């Protein structure tokens, strides 16, 4: 094949095929295969379709004479190796260059291709196809009219497509990829940012306002991606912010990092997300997902159709969910979280208060910090909590937990299905529980219907202010308190098959207290403590198993104790006080009449103390053998009005009788027996001392084994005995066994009627006799023995002392005679005495023989005046036969001392004292000597003797008065004895009171509460000496930090108590 043919083939096949492939046409003349052509195309100048020599020319085309070059067209130049220039004015001046079209140019580098009128391919491997297309950088490609690929590796395809960056690509009419490595695909697509992508008719991916829009992607009609790394995908989508993504028609991601997905979605906030048709997330970090979801504040989230999150940090999840408060969360269909930091979860849930939570369908938390959890739960108060289906709270900080639980009032708490806390500070815990204002109800069906009341336990109930009911039971069988401030603690009990054994505690009076199963306190201020205890009177108190206090102001303590009349007290097992003001203390004691007191227990019925008459007092329990427990003595018994029996076995059976001591007996009116086995058996009798016996009316026996066995008899001293009417025996072993007899002194005996014996072992056995002095003995009627050892020897005798007795009469001494003499009347008598000391009187001067020298005794301190002048009869002095009464020269002697004769021997052993009044003695008289044979002397002596007799009579009268005085003193002594007896009784009572108080204090139980206990009750009993004490304690825990309690105890008639409050910090 020749060159001509080859070229012809090239034109007719290769060139034409290329032109056809490019959609272009050139006015070339096809010639036959046989025509010869040069390397430059021959033009059909004359348009005849034939190659005419000398007519058709190459039009100035220049291929530089190379066989591998082709220049075709007027002024076409193909100057590069293997280059081709087709078209008028075309230019291909580099190796492998191709320029096709009018004025096309393939220059500036090997392999350039320019196809199209005025197209330019400038640079190695560039391609420009299309009218006025420009590919002017290495490896650039521009395809389409006015297409521009001005940067290395750039591509522009489409009419007026343009690239403005290295490796940029624009495809489509007026597409523009100005950014490095950017892509614009579609009519008018604009990708002007670094590595940006614009896909779609009319889309724009342009440079962002504040930075290069590197990496932007815009896909879709009129989409806009103006931020760095932004994406706009969809018709009119807008990716305005850096790294923003807008996917969907009219989607808008208008801030850095924003994402808008869906028709008309709007993500206008930095890093916001709007997903869903017409969704809006227009604030920083906002997210809206769902049709018309709105997240219109910073950090908000709206997920779900029409979800609204309109405050900072709010979250709304669910169709029509709305979170309108800062940081609020709404989760669920048509939920609303309107308060700041509120949470609403569940269909139609509403959290309207700040910090509130509503969880559950139709849940509503309308108060600040309120919580409503559960279907149709409702919490409207600040800080309130409602948890459970249809639980409701209407008060501030109130809590309701459970199905249909309700808390109405500030700080109310209701826990349990259908529980109701209806008032401020009320608490109801347990299904169907109810609590009024300030009250607490804990347990199934518990009811605290009064203000500040408490009900604890299944079906426990209280219906008045400050009442307390603690203890469970079946329906209508729980603990029950009905009075204001009443307390009932103790539940019902049931046997194995469910039959009720004991009812629950019941307290139905104001301030009444019932503690224990089966207890009942149904009057004002009544208290019942113990199983089946009952207090049914006003202010009544019963403590113990089955104890009963059934009248006003009564007190019973001890199992089966009974106090059944007003003010009665029964303490001890089976003790009974059945009359007004009666007191029974001790096991099986009985006080059965008004004001009676019985204290002291017994094992069996009627063995304890018994007080069975009005005002009676019986103190002392029964005694038993250590082995076998056989009864030894019964308890004290007081069976008459105002009788008092104190001591085991003591009996006071007479009106006003008093028996104090073991087995003491006072069996008659006003009788008093004090001492072990003392016995007073007659009216007003008094027996004081062990085994003392007073069996006569108004008799008194004081001393161990003393006996007063007749009317008005008095025996004082151990073994003293007074058995006569009005007899008096005073002194150990003394005896007065006749009427009006008086014996005073140890071993004294007055055994004659109206006799008197005064002194140890004195004996007055004659009627109306008197024995005064140690061992004095008046054994004859009317006789008197005065002085130790004196003894009468005949009736009506007065015996003064013994044979060794000295008699001193100070009234007859110096200075006394004048007074005594002045009182004398009638004849003056002389006192005489015989050898036995018997006194007598005479009207004449006795002879000298009638006076035995040495036997005259000084009886008066009155001096006997005699004349010292001798009486001369016939001038003779008569001194013989006259005896001087004393020696004038003898010294004065002490009282009670006598001398035998003138200057004789001293007589000793004469006492100068007598009971009551002392008879004083005086110094020895110093008479003058009488002259013998003197008539005057005789007359003087007679006068002296008469005066002495008068003085002696006066002394006797003094002694008689002294005896009467001693009787008065004895009477006073009895009065003092009575006073001492009363003082002893008072001291005994005081000691009893002390022992009673100590027993009461010892019986106070402690107020201990174990760590998990809410309350505790305790009872106690104690013994101190012969006294019994009983006490009870109630302690209640308020909370983990504080508790309080009170205790009371009684011992005898003494009561004590205390109140304790404890606070513990942890």
TrEMBL record:
<keyword id="KW-0732">Signal</keyword>
<feature type="domain" description="Trimeric autotransporter adhesin YadA-like head">
    <location>
        <begin position="437"/>
        <end position="460"/>
    </location>
</feature>
<protein>
    <recommendedName>
        <fullName>Trimeric autotransporter adhesin YadA-like head domain-containing protein</fullName>
    </recommendedName>
</protein>
<feature type="domain" description="Trimeric autotransporter adhesin YadA-like head">
    <location>
        <begin position="750"/>
        <end position="776"/>
    </location>
</feature>
<feature type="compositionally biased region" description="Polar residues">
    <location>
        <begin position="889"/>
        <end position="898"/>
    </location>
</feature>
<feature type="domain" description="Trimeric autotransporter adhesin YadA-like head">
    <location>
        <begin position="109"/>
        <end position="133"/>
    </location>
</feature>
<feature type="signal peptide">
    <location>
        <begin position="1"/>
        <end position="38"/>
    </location>
</feature>
<dbReference type="InterPro" id="IPR011049">
    <property type="entry name" value="Serralysin-like_metalloprot_C"/>
</dbReference>
<feature type="domain" description="Trimeric autotransporter adhesin YadA-like head">
    <location>
        <begin position="638"/>
        <end position="664"/>
    </location>
</feature>
<feature type="domain" description="Trimeric autotransporter adhesin YadA-like head">
    <location>
        <begin position="351"/>
        <end position="377"/>
    </location>
</feature>
<feature type="domain" description="Trimeric autotransporter adhesin YadA-like head">
    <location>
        <begin position="680"/>
        <end position="706"/>
    </location>
</feature>
<feature type="domain" description="Trimeric autotransporter adhesin YadA-like head">
    <location>
        <begin position="138"/>
        <end position="161"/>
    </location>
</feature>
<feature type="domain" description="Trimeric autotransporter adhesin YadA-like head">
    <location>
        <begin position="379"/>
        <end position="404"/>
    </location>
</feature>
<feature type="domain" description="Trimeric autotransporter adhesin YadA-like head">
    <location>
        <begin position="407"/>
        <end position="432"/>
    </location>
</feature>
<feature type="domain" description="Trimeric autotransporter adhesin YadA-like head">
    <location>
        <begin position="563"/>
        <end position="588"/>
    </location>
</feature>
<feature type="domain" description="Trimeric autotransporter adhesin YadA-like head">
    <location>
        <begin position="508"/>
        <end position="531"/>
    </location>
</feature>
<feature type="region of interest" description="Disordered">
    <location>
        <begin position="885"/>
        <end position="904"/>
    </location>
</feature>
<feature type="domain" description="Trimeric autotransporter adhesin YadA-like head">
    <location>
        <begin position="177"/>
        <end position="202"/>
    </location>
</feature>
<feature type="domain" description="Trimeric autotransporter adhesin YadA-like head">
    <location>
        <begin position="535"/>
        <end position="561"/>
    </location>
</feature>
<dbReference type="InterPro" id="IPR008640">
    <property type="entry name" value="Adhesin_Head_dom"/>
</dbReference>
<dbReference type="Pfam" id="PF05658">
    <property type="entry name" value="YadA_head"/>
</dbReference>
<feature type="domain" description="Trimeric autotransporter adhesin YadA-like head">
    <location>
        <begin position="708"/>
        <end position="734"/>
    </location>
</feature>
<feature type="domain" description="Trimeric autotransporter adhesin YadA-like head">
    <location>
        <begin position="267"/>
        <end position="291"/>
    </location>
</feature>
<feature type="domain" description="Trimeric autotransporter adhesin YadA-like head">
    <location>
        <begin position="323"/>
        <end position="349"/>
    </location>
</feature>
<feature type="domain" description="Trimeric autotransporter adhesin YadA-like head">
    <location>
        <begin position="78"/>
        <end position="104"/>
    </location>
</feature>
<feature type="domain" description="Trimeric autotransporter adhesin YadA-like head">
    <location>
        <begin position="295"/>
        <end position="321"/>
    </location>
</feature>
<feature type="compositionally biased region" description="Polar residues">
    <location>
        <begin position="844"/>
        <end position="865"/>
    </location>
</feature>
<feature type="domain" description="Trimeric autotransporter adhesin YadA-like head">
    <location>
        <begin position="211"/>
        <end position="237"/>
    </location>
</feature>
<dbReference type="GO" id="GO:0019867">
    <property type="term" value="C:outer membrane"/>
</dbReference>
<feature type="region of interest" description="Disordered">
    <location>
        <begin position="831"/>
        <end position="868"/>
    </location>
</feature>
């Amino acid at each position: 094949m020749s060159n001509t043919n080859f070229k012809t083939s090239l034109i007719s096949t290769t060139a034409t095929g290329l032109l056809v492939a490019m959609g272009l046409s050139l006015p070339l003349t096809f010639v036959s295969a046989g025509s010869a052509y040069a390397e430059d195309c021959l033009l059909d100048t004359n348009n005849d379709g034939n190659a005419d020599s000398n007519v058709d020319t190459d039009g100035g085309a220049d291929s530089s004479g190379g066989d591998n070059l082709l220049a075709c067209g007027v002024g076409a130049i193909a100057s590069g190796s293997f280059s081709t220039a087709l078209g008028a004015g075309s230019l291909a001046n580099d190796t492998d260059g191709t320029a096709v079209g009018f004025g096309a140019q393939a220059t500036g580098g090997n392999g350039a291709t320019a196809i199209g009128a005025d197209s330019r391919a400038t640079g190695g491997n560039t391609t420009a196809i299309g009218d006025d297309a420009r590919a002017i950088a290495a490896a650039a490609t521009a395809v389409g009219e006015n297409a521009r690929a001005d940067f290395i590796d750039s591509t522009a395809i489409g009419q007026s497509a343009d690239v403005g960056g290295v490796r940029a690509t624009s495809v489509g009419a007026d597409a523009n990829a100005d950014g490095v490595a950017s892509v614009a695909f579609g009519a008018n697509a604009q990708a002007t940012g670094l590595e940006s992508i614009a896909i779609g008719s009319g889309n724009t991916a342009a440079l962002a306002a504040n930075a290069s829009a590197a990496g932007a992607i815009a896909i879709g009609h009129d989409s806009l991606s103006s931020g760095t790394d932004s994406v706009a995908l969809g018709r009119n989508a807008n990716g305005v912010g850096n790294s923003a993504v807008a996917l969907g028609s009219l989607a808008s991601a208008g801030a850095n990092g924003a994402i808008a997905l869906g028709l008309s979605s709007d993500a206008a906030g930095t890093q916001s997300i709007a997903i869903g048709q017409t969704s809006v997330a227009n604030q920083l970090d906002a997210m809206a997902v769902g049709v018309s979801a709105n997240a219109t504040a910073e950090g908000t989230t709206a997920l779900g159709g029409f979800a609204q999150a309109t405050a900072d940090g709010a979250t709304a999840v669910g169709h029509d969910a709305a979170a309108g408060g800062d940081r609020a969360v709404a989760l669920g269909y048509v939920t609303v979280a309107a308060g700041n930091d509120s949470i609403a979860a569940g269909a139609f849930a509403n959290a309207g208060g700040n910090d509130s939570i509503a969880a559950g369908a139709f849940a509503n938390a309308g108060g600040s910090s309120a919580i409503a959890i559960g279907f149709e739960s409702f919490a409207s108060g600040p800080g309130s909590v409602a948890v459970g289906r249809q639980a409701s709270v209407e008060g501030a900080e109130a809590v309701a937990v459970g199905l249909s639980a309700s808390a109405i009032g500030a700080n109310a708490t209701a826990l349990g299905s259908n529980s109701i806390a209806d008032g401020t500070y009320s608490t109801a815990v347990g299904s169907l529980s109810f609590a009024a204002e300030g009250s607490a109800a804990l347990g199934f069906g518990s009811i605290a219907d009064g203000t500040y009341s408490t009900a604890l336990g299944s079906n426990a109930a209280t219906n008045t202010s400050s009442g307390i009911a603690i203890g469970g039971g079946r329906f209508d069988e729980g603990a029950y308190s009905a009075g204001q401030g009443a307390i009932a603690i103790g539940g019902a009990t049931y046997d194995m098959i469910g039959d009720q054994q004991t009812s629950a505690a019941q307290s139905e009076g104001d301030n009444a207290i019932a503690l224990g199963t089966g207890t009942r306190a149904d009057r004002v201020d009544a208290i019942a403590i113990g199983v089946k205890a009952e207090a049914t009177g006003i202010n009544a108190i019963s403590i113990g198993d089955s104890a009963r206090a059934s009248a006003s102001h009564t007190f019973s303590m001890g199992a089966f104790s009974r106090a059944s009349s007003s003010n009665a007290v029964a303490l001890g097992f089976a003790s009974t006080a059945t009359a007004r003001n009666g007191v029974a203390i001790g096991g099986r004691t009985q006080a059965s009449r008004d004001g009676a007191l019985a204290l002291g227990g017994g094992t069996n019925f009627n063995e304890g103390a018994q007080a069975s008459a009005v005002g009676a007092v019986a103190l002392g329990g029964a005694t038993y053998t250590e082995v076998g427990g056989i009864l030894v003595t019964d308890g004290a018994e007081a069976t008459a009005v105002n009788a008092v029996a104190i001591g085991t076995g003591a009996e006071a059976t007479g009106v006003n009788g008093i028996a104090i001591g073991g087995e003491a007996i006072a069996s008659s009116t006003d009788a008093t027996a004090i001492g072990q086995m003392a016995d007073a058996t007659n009216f007003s009798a008094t027996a004081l001392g062990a085994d003392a016996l007073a069996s006569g009316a108004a008799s008194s026996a004081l001393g161990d084994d003393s006996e007063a066995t007749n009317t008005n008899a008095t025996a004082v001293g151990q073994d003293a005995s007074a058995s006569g009417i009005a007899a008096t025996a005073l002194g150990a072993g003394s005896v007065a066994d006749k009427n009006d007899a008086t014996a005073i002194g140890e071993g004294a005996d007055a055994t004659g009627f109206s006799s008197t014996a005064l002194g140890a072992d004195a004996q007055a056995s004659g009627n109306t006799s008197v024995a005064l002095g140690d061992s004095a003995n008046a054994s004859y009627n009317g006789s008197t023995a005065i002085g130790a050892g004196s003894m009468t020897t005949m009736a009506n005798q007065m015996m003064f002392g013994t044979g060794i007795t000295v008699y001193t009469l100070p009234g007859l001494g110096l200075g006394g005679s004048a007074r005594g003499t002045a009182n004398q009347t009638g004849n003056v008598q002389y006192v005489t005495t015989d050898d036995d000391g018997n006194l007598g009187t005479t009207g004449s001067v006795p002879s000298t023989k009638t006076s035995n020298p040495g036997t005259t005794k000084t009886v008066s301190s009155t001096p006997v005046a005699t004349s010292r002048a001798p009486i001369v009869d016939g001038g003779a002095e008569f001194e013989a036969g006259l005896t001087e009464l004393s020696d004038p020269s003898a010294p004065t002697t002490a009282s009670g001392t006598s001398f035998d004769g003138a200057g004789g021997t001293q007589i000793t052993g004469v006492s100068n004292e007598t009971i009551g009044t002392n008879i004083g003695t005086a110094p020895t008289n110093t008479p003058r000597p009488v002259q013998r044979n003197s008539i005057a002397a005789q007359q003087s002596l007679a006068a002296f003797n008469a005066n002495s007799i008068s003085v002696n009579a006066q002394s006797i009268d003094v002694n008689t008065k002294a005896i009467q005085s001693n009787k008065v003193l004895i009477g006073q002594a009895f009065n003092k004895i009575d006073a001492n007896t009363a003082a002893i009784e008072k001291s005994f009572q005081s000691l009893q009171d002390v022992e009673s108080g100590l027993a009461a204090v010892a019986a106070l139980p402690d107020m201990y509460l174990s760590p998990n206990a809410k309350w505790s009750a305790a009872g106690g009993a104690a013994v101190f000496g012969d006294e019994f004490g009983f006490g009870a304690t109630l302690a209640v825990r308020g909370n983990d930090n504080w508790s309080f309690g009170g205790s009371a105890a009684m011992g005898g008639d003494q009561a004590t108590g205390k109140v304790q409050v404890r606070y513990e910090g942890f």
